[in-house]
Each structure stands twice: as structure tokens, then as C-alpha cells.
Amino acid sequence: MIVGVPKEVKPDEYRLGLLPVAVDLLTRQGHTVLIQNDAGVGTGFENDAYEQAGAQIIATADEVWAKSDMIVKVKEPQAQEWPHMRDGQVLFTYFHFAADRDLTLACLERNVVAIAYETLEERDASGKIHLPLLTPMSEIAGSMATQEGAKYLEKPQQGRGVLLGGVPGVEPGRVLVLGGGVVGTAAARIAAGMGADVVLMDVDLNRMRYLEDVMADNVTTIYSDPHAIREYLQWADLVVGAVLLPGAKAPHLVHREDIGIMKKGSVIVDVSIDQGGCVETSKVTTHGSPTYIIDGVVHYCVGNMPGAVARTSTRALSNATMPWTLRIASEGYESVAQNNPGFKAAINIEHGKLLNQPVAEAHGLEVTTV
């Protein structure tokens, strides 16, 4: 198989789909790997590292897309990349289709096979479903959410001027985390480590019992309901939106009218923005222009937060995706799906057919049941 890795074109996206070690393993199995010129510079891997691993360096993205049977990326194909997509081509990347109708329609019209990192499933010994290709980026995004929130609480950034950890004689900052999954757990852990008072909300009582056992004493778990959310929105200096419904559009837990009850200069970091955001006033921003203000509340809604720490992120992502990339290249995605229901769940679109029910519901489209 010919595997292509184009340079990411989303603004301030420095990650790359494959590390040199993955290229080495693919080429040892007899596959051809095409890497766009300087695609790995943002992660600290120059062309030489990829050439030594056996890749061919290709001058343009056009050529990579045109020659490759499978494209391995990090972010969803951008509008400028859609014309390159072709019938039967396998795309292995994050898609977040539920938040982007135009992208969904483009992939359907181009008859590609869209295999989404974020909906690939694995079950543990207890039968609980995990999302192994989403987890590493969720861990990074959650950690960054507190880091960025602390930054934008600073007065020069139009925040309240609050130090999350406080100092002797002065109370610490207050952090509300909506969602106790991977993102929320990471955000709460970092906030607690900084010395903030943290409230972590979820609706899964078993999950909250677990979090009570493993979190620091300055983290309190609260059952998430509309009244509790409104109460703690008034209390918080920093709110982290960390809600996930796999493959589906995120529900709005914070509504437009709720923003007015928050403190002026408080900060919202909506990590759910890839799936549409869990705050009604959220809209996608970029690293170059990361924030905007509504009713005195700073909103940080960068859609590719882990891209800012590209070296860490690329390593973490490749560690998770590499075994699946090798299997798809060697066995074919159909064979992998036939033997693995969790992988089959990652195939959101196949040859013009929409296979993901939450995406279909988000856009009022028909799903094809197989």
C-alpha cells in the first residue's frame, strides 16, 4: 500500500500523522510511505529523519494526495484539501463530523473511506468502552485547558487578575470542570496541583466515586444538573468544558443566559469545541486569535489545542495510532473491521454511505446500516 502524509494546513497546526519509527515499520512490511517536504519540521523531525526511515520526500501536497492509497493525518481535511480526496481513498485521521456538516457532505460526495480516530473503540476487561485514539489528545487538551485558563485569568489578557494557586493569606482561584472523563480528569488534576479550589461535575456516580478516591483533597465532586451548574458558574473563576458524547455533537450545559451570571473577567475554556462546544456562546478560535469576550467573560475555544505542543502531541498520538496504521496497510481496512467491532465503529463514511448514527442525527441525514 502507498501511505501518504501531507503537511497539516489548519492554522497553527504543527503535528504530523506519522513519526519516523512508524515509517520504518511500514517500509519494512513492504509499503511505500510518502511524506510531504518539511511536513515534520513543526514536530522537530526533519526530512532526513524520514528519509533514513525509508520514506520518499514529496514536494507538494497535491502529489502526496494523488499517489496515496491511504492518507494519514491529524486534523480533519480542510476545505482546500477536499478536491484532493478521491473515490475509495482511505483517510485515517480525526474528523469530528458531528460539528461540521460541510465536511461530512464533502466526504460523502468524494466517496472516500473516512476512518475517525475519535470513534475507534476498545473494551476493557469489565466491558467498558474506551476511545484509545482520542485519549492521548484528550489528556493533553485537559492539561492545557488549565494552563491556558490560568494564563487568560491574568489582567493583561482581560481576565480577573486571579492566581489559581493563591498565596499565603489570599484565597486560591476557583475552577469548575464540567465532565469527569479523560479531559476533565486531566484538567482537574493540573488545577489541583496548582493549588486551586476545584469542583468536578459529572452524572456518572461510579465515576465520581472513583475520582473522589484518586483526586487531591482540594477537588470536590458534584453531581451535574442545571441548578448545580448555574450555582457553580457564579462561584468559578475558570470553567473548563470537558463534555464528550462519542461521535455526537456536544450538549449545551452552559446557555447564553448563564454567561451573564458569571464574574466579569472569568474564563471559559471549552475543550468540547471540536464537537460543537458545551457552551452555547462558544465558537471555534485559533492559536493566533484564541479568545473573545461576551458579557465580560473570556472565551477560549481553540479547536486544536494539542497542536501548540506538537512534539509531545505527535509522539503521544503516533504511539496510539501506529498499530492501527500498520494493520490497515497490511490487512486492508475491510479485513480489520471484519475481525474487530471496535475498529468498525471508526468507519464513519464508506464509499458515499454514512455509517455513524450520531453524525446522521446531528445533520438530519440518513444513516446506512450494514
3D architecture notes:
The chain folds into two domains: 2-120 and 309-363, Rossmann fold (3-Layer(aba) Sandwich), CATH 3.40.50; 135-303, NAD(P)-binding Rossmann-like Domain (Rossmann fold). 49% of the residues are buried. The longest helix has 22 residues, at 310-331. A hairpin with a 2-residue loop joins strand 16 (347-350) and strand 17 (353-354). The protein contains 13 helices and 17 strands. It has helices spanning 20-28, 47-52, 61-67, 101-109, 135-152, 182-193, 205-214, 226-235, 256-259, 310-331, 333-339, 341-344, 357-363, and strands at residues 2-5, 32-36, 56-58, 70-72, 90-93, 113-116, 122-123, 129-130, 174-178, 197-202, 219-223, 238-241, 267-270, 291-294, 297-300, 347-350, 353-354. Helix 5 packs across helix 6 (182-193) and helix 10 crosses helix 11.
Task: List the SSEs and their pairings.
Elements: E1 2-5, H1 20-28, E2 32-36, H2 47-52, E3 56-58, H3 61-67, E4 70-72, E5 90-93, H4 101-109, E6 113-116, E7 122-123, E8 129-130, H5 135-152, E9 174-178, H6 182-193, E10 197-202, H7 205-214, E11 219-223, H8 226-235, E12 238-241, H9 256-259, E13 267-270, E14 291-294, E15 297-300, H10 310-331, H11 333-339, H12 341-344, E16 347-350, E17 353-354, H13 357-363
Parallel strand pairs: 1-2, 1-4, 2-3, 4-5, 5-6, 9-10, 9-12, 10-11, 12-13, 13-15
Antiparallel strand pairs: 6-16, 7-8, 14-15, 16-17
Helix pairs in contact: 5-6, 10-11
